Every structure is written in structure tokens, then in C-alpha cells.
């Protein structure tokens, strides 16, 4: 199959770029002397995850139990479900354990820990549980110094659960854009999580795992003393948000949407394409960053970025391509009806999720279909 | 099955509200004396579409040829593909014709019309083609007075295609929010499209169909003289954007996301739920409207809106619920871990698209799974 055979819109993976991204992150975590556990929520694709495992990943991170089920069925056993578990999902988690999955679950409160204990005790199970630590004030987790850390550990230990360790995610690193601020955030993430682990150990609890990570902090970290594993997800494809954060070049972005020009509004300098928000997603992650790429950076059919051309507006199945600043009044000649273009996404996790499958484009030009899943 | 049996997040349809929305739109178009052709891109669900057809819809509108294929297989024959067709999709359209589908396609330029003619002539086919008219300057289409309207018609007629009519969509009605401005936009949409039809007829071309519509203009129209059919999509569920536009009450919104509280940040007044942007979508359509609902309006488990509580932040599988204005420092007691809530979406088309299935909640409390599809 060739690119020109594809019916647009298509989620295209540049396999060479993807492999370079995988190798870069694996080298970084090897250099820092920690295990790497990729977050597969970005791709939800077996072939992509296999490439990460082959490069040296030890286990995976998931954002849904459906991901855990799908990747366990595909042969991955060591799985961390990195979202505080809701009580209604405990039977699903138990079913994975009973099939032999080495699943770890997460909590950050006494009521949630108690729900885990009550369910597990009623079923005669032991869950491996990590305690979520809040090192950057952006979402869930217990502050490293908070009293509730030991309360949660006590509920788990008294209830017979295996305290597997502590986990944090400095997602606010996405708001930064200098090497120094990223390195500082990586250190804040590391030191906070290690401190929480030390408090648990000092109080007599086991805490074998200290798990940290986000794509920006994983790449910016200068030392990870006390950390046992790093997690990162979007690095596998990268995207325009990550480019604005400063951790990848435009030429590293491995996911794009192949689209076709279907019309124009010549006097406005618009080309209309068949990639609207259903294909690109509604993610406008670059809106508040240094460079706003609209709904995506336009590239030619070969993937070379066409500076200044973005999808500036999107309806469900229509994208409007225009040039930033002065309208391009030669747009009809530049991008005639039928022209194929690639568009780099703001956020690879969100754009990938719009597609039932990727088309994997090898350096040879060959195209292979890789399926992906969605839902819960 | 009951609500409490469901593993969250879940896309929930309130079937009674949906049926009321369907009946309202069908009554409105009946009253105006035009056929109604619902846009099924909103639901991509056979059961929802069947309810629209049973209420009196004549044919359907689709945004992708996959929708055409799926609904043709489900028994719908009269289908309008309402996006200017890319050349690479013509074989797919031809395959539908050959199976007996009464498919209509769309163009708005000479090159696109020529591509249709060239393909059809090579295959010995005749497509029914509508010409897209731009009545509100927001996206695709030919201006009602533009010379190219007759040029496109000539290419189609000379090439042996069946000119089926003209079609317009005043999508900029989404930017309005008063009855008068909506009625004016409906009249602008009507008069522009009818004028284009009259120009075609005066030049000797057939133009049996004059198709207009968007949910706001369809509901606001006072007369549709010269129009033969109306299209609308999101009315079937409605959403917060449509509420801000002023065409539905909060209590009319038939789609919500059922979610579970998984944690808190008590001192910030946050409850964390398992509906992040993967469930709600990244659509922030109310951001620039009168009332910004964040990623959605929070309701109790029974669907009663909890004024002031919205999903104010969202990561992939985490939503942050907070109260607008002053933080709710009683949030832990108000929404304990395990609490189920419903969240009304900004944009039903985008939120629905995140789910492989809906759970249809009948007035009796019974829950039935309705599958939906995605992709192209």
C-alpha cells in the first residue's frame, strides 16, 4: 500500500521518527539508571507498545483498565494503572489479577484505600497498591509532607494490601518552556516523591517503588537519586505542545493527519480540507503557548512543515487552512483541489484517539495498518 | 441493567428527553411545510436514527461515507453526504450507488465538479450532485451571486451528472444568542439558498432540492418559502453550546457523561472524577459564550444540574470538579469518594464521539446499550 492509496483523513505514523523518539527516551532513562515504564495511553496500539518494550521498557503504564486488558492479552504482564481507582472498577481489576496480570493500582485517600481493602478482603485478594503523591499541585495525590500519607498506608497495611510504592506525575511541566525550569520541575518531582517514600519507610512501611515522570521532566532530569522508575507517554510521537515546551523539534513529531484539499475560499486565502476537529481532535493545547498552531501545523505530502500555514478553524469534518498574518491569495494555486497534506497535531494523545487505526509509514515508503482501540 | 451497575465513565442518553427533542424539531419542520433530513453525525447510532426516521424524517444527512455505509446497511436509502467530496472518496461513493443507495454528493468548485464528472464518466455512472452555497461566510460554498455557481452547474450538466439542487449550512448561527438574530440568520440562510436555486433555474438547469439548516436556524425560522428540506444534527441531544445560543433549556439536554468521584484536593475545593477530556472531549465551545461551563455542567446522579459546579480542568482520564467563584471547602462531604455524577457536555457531537457505545436510560430506569461507530 502507498500513501496515495489511502482515503483521507488518515492518522499517519512516521515509523523512523517514532523509533528515534523511543530510543532517545530509553537512552535517557538508561543513563539515569532507572527503569522505564512507558505510558501507553498515547498510542493504545500493540505495535507501538511492542517497539517500546523491545527498546528496553520494563512494564507499561495505562490510563484505563481497558488498556490493561488489551495489552495483557497482547503479552504484557507488568502493568501500572496510574489513575486513582474508582470502586466500580475493582471487579475489573480483580479479573485481571485472576488471569495472571501483575497489575498495580493507585490510591490517594483513606476512603479510596478503605474501598480497596474492603473489596479485596471480601474476595480474598491482595492488590499491589501505589500511593499517589502530589509534587506540583496540579491534580491528584497527597502532598509529600501530609499526615494523610501515613494514614492511607496504615489502612492498606492493616487491610493486608501490598504497599508497592509511591507514584507522582508533574503534569505542570507542560506549562514550562525553558531547560532550567524543566530541570527544576524534574528535581521537584524527584525530591517530593523520594521524600514521601522515605517517610513511609521511616514509619515502618514497605515502599520498594518510587515512580516519577512526564515527558518533559523525564527528558530534563539531571539526576534521579532515590527513584526506581520513570514514566512518560507522549514522547513516543511528540507533538506541537511538546515542541513549544522545548523538548522536541518539529522534525521529531511522528504523528500527523493526512488530509485532502476539498475546496477554497480564494478571496480569504482559505483552503478547505477533509480533516476537521473529528480528525485533529478539539485539543487547542498550543493556544496559550508561545506559538499557537491553531488545530495543527500544515506540512506538504512528504511531511515538510510549511511555515505559517495552520488549520486555523475546524468544524466536524472541515478544516480551514490559512496563513498566519497576511492571507495567501495564491492559495488555490498553492494547494489545488485534491492536494494531499499532512498536519502535525497539538496533542498526539488526543488526535490519535480519534482514529480506529494508524497507517504506519516506513522509511521505505511502505504503509502498514496498525489498529488502535478506545473506550473504557 | 441499572445505572449503578455501569462502570464509569459512560455516555448516557436520557431517552425521554431525546424523544422530546426529536418531536420538537419534526413538529417545527412539519409546521414550516418542508421535509426534515436529520444530520446523523451527532449520534452515529442506529437506534437514535431510527427514532428520527420514525418521527417523520425523510432521508438522512451524513458527514462521512462511513456513516453512509453504516446507515445504508441499517436500512436507510436516501442519504446526503454533506461535505464536499474529495476525489479519493469517489470509489467509495460509487460502491454505495452500486449497492442501491440513493446517495447525493456535494461540490462547490469547477475542479471538484470536474473530478466528479471525470470519475463518473470513466465508470459509466451518474451521481446526483448538490452545489454548496455559502450564505453566511463561515466555511465552504459558493456565494449565491457568484459567477462560479453557473460554471459549476455547467460542468456537471455537460458531464451528464444530475444536478440535484443547492445546499447551505449557516453554521455561524452558533455564534448568536438572541431570538431576533437567529431568525434573521435563518432568513439569510433561506433567501441566499433560494436565490442560488433561482439563478440555476433561470439559466436552464434543474434544481429540484433547496436544502438549508443548522439546529439554531431550523428552530428559529419563521418561514421557509422556496426551501424543500431542512437539516439539523445536534438538536437530537442538545448541549451547553446550544443552551447558550438560546435554543434549549438545560433540562432538554439528553446526553451526559456518568462519572465517579475518585479523590479530592480538599483545601482547593476540588473533587477529582474519572471523566477527563477523553470522556468529555476537548471541546470548549462555551469558552467564548455568555456562560463558560468549563468541560461540562455537573449534575447529581439523577440528572439535576448543580448550579455553579463544573468540570473546570481536565486531563486524559481525570476531571477536576470545582465551584465557580468561591471554592467549596465542603467538597469532600458534598461529593464523597464513590459518588456518581452526571456531566452535561459542551458539544454533544464531540462528547458522543469519544465513546464506543451509549447507555440509553429509559423513563422506567432501565438501561440498554446502543452501539455507535467512529472513523472514516
From TrEMBL, chains A, B:
InterPro entries: Ala_racemase_N, D-amino_acid_metab_enzyme, D-ser_dehydrat-like_dom, D-ser_dehydrat-like_sf, PLP-binding_barrel. Its cofactor is Zn(2+); pyridoxal 5'-phosphate. SMART domains: D-ser_dehydrat (SM01119). The keyword Cell inner membrane does not apply. Residues 254-362 form the D-serine dehydratase-like domain. GO terms for molecular function: D-serine ammonia-lyase activity; metal ion binding. Keywords: Lyase, Metal-binding, Pyridoxal phosphate, Zinc. One of its GO terms (biological process) is D-serine catabolic process. Belongs to the DSD1 family. This is DSD1 family PLP-dependent enzyme.
